[in-house]
Amino acid sequence: MINLVLGATGSLGRAVVKALVESNETTKAFVRSREKAEQYFKEYENKIEIVTGNAANEEDVLKASANADNIDYCIHIPYQRWEKEARELLSVSINAAIISNAKLIFPGNVYVYGLPDYNPVDEKHPWKAHTKKGKIRIDMENMLKESKAKRGLKYTVVRMPDFYGPYVINEFYEKIFFNALEGKTIQWFGDLDIPIEFIFIEDAGKAVVTAALSEKSNGEEYNVPGYSVTTARIFLVEVSRQAGKSSKVKTLNSAFIIGLGGLFSPLAREFKEMLYLKQVKLILDGEKFKEAFGSIPAAQYEDGIAKTLEWARNEKAGSMQFSISKREVI
């Protein structure tokens, strides 16, 4: 199969490229800058094709998707641009997928569910998002459904919790690991002891690729949980232990105070409404994925944390400067 990865230099995009290469699949990485991408994907030299273009330009995406069997939609834009750009960007890829007769694989998240009615949350849970960003995600998933019904789009949704791991570059998870290596306080936002889960980014990439390569996934949505239920406190204490610097862990659990921070930070303004995800239990049920594909990619937290700290040490030493210059949404 020929696989086109949109947003290939984002954390999920890179993980999907890695999983495709490891599966010996023909892989095209769609990027804005060839020069930066060649540096970013240096370890995959001669194993992938780098294609340049703008994901907002339908002609660019259509040209790149010619002969593609799968289009992995791994595009990330900052929260503050979601309202104006998220739906339009997806529309471009939907049109390209239909014209190219390719399957569009869309990484979903838990925003669509809102406050959960039950746990673990399966694919039958109602969509009742109460946040602006959750409603945008509902619109985006409905665009997929409507395009399938009216225009024959082939698509698959793989829905996951928060990512952590190498190349997860944002103002939240990135700082956890870098602060731990420096012995600085690790800042958490939300309740430290609410049951929570995280998915290791390379597992997320494997899950996306597993669904993408399966003929039976068309029109389906799959929830993919993290390794196990944990708490932020347990996770962060393990990060600190492995970093060996005995960092303190502190939390900010007030939407009001975070909102005040929004006077100075656009990200804080946008993050305020999503704080509930760190204050209530919302755990995904992965039985449908497991039944369809046999198993769920799931690195133990101890192993995932070790790999992330190793990457962060190398980053801190300056060996991967391109990745540190990027910022993604939380």
What does this structure look like?
With 330 residues, the protein is an alpha/beta fold. The protein has a domain of 212 residues: NAD(P)-binding Rossmann-like Domain (Rossmann fold). 42% of the residues lie in helices and 16% in strands. The chain is built from 13 helices and 13 strands. A 7-stranded parallel β-sheet has the order 3-2-1-4-5-6-11, with helices on both faces.
And the CATH topology of the domain at 2-168 and 199-226 and 282-298? Answer: Rossmann fold
How many strand units? 13
Rg, please? 19 Å
Biggest sheet statistics = 7 strands, parallel
- State the secondary-structure class: alpha/beta
Task: Write down the oligomeric state.
Answer: single chain
Low-confidence stretches: 322-330
**What distance lies between the first and last C-alpha atoms, to the nearest angstrom?**
31 Å
What would you call the shape?
globular
Number of helices: 13
Order of helices and strands: EHEHEHEHEHEEHEEEHEEHEHHHHH
- Give the percentage of residues in beta strands: 15-25%
